[in-house]
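re the bet — no i am not wrong, look at it urself. input seq straight from the record:
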Amino acid sequence: MVQRIVEAARIESLDPSAIPRLRMPERATIFAARAARLLQLADASNPIAGYLRLMAALADAQQRVLATFNAPMPARASIELNQRHSMPIVPALTDSRDPAWRDVLFMLLDGVEAAGALTPALTELVGRLRALDAAALDNQADAILALRFAEIDPAAAPFVAAALQVVWTDLASRIDTNDVPYLDTPGVCPVCGSVPVASIVRVGGAYDGYRYAQCGLCATELHVVRAKCTNCDSTKGIAYHVMGTGEEPADEQAAKAKSAPLKAESCDECGTYRKIGYQEKAYDFEPYADDLASLTLDLLMGEAGYRRAAPNPWLWPEHSENDR
């Protein structure tokens, strides 16, 4: 069956109310699907295959913890206040973060340990995380959520981020989409105020043919018109890039670019890029997992002079956007 793909100009002419603005995380499968995709992508040709398998174990642990975790929902008065001011419903940057996130972290570490033998370096890291007090863990969480790169421990951050993801994905999965306001700031999740990691053009049902940017924290997906920058909202200077040698004839390069299930969408207006996947070309595409597994494309985009619009919370470089 040929899937219907709706072009940007056509989308903009449609009644916006007919397009699902949000796609909330599917609580029963969100992390399990991510784990399965990570294992699928961790083949022998992937330079970080071992790391992807480790992150698959972490995602499996997230799914198990999420099955029984319920964070306190915000009060109705808080929701209405955020609505009136066009603010995220459950903002990540808050002074009232549920302290249970630290318990989630330790449960995730238990899950990773139970998944198999740990390397000496990972054993040391897990021990170091368990030894941190509440204040130190909260400081690391604050740095990650605020993208204060100089304060982030790259080795520990994926596990801290994973615990925070469980908490906010739990909240997002229980929020009524009608309560989620429209924000004035482009490229920001209206549920938690974090930024998306990658986007996906979905197939099937009400989402068929539409592009959604997936939040890196709560996994909420926000509809964004294609050929529009998911970082600055510009429609100018948008281009698409794929992995390849660049040595093929022009027609072969064009065919490869057209059929690629994953591309980097760059914007000359803000100088950033964010990856986009096409579910019609890779049905199991999972924005977070596919972004993590395509490090080679990040290297190529960096060489081309573009910077990531946002980091993947499971792969923090030693030196990053802190120099921006």
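see?? Confidence is low (pLDDT under 50) at residues 1-14, 320-324. told u. also The chain has eleven helices and eight strands. so pay up
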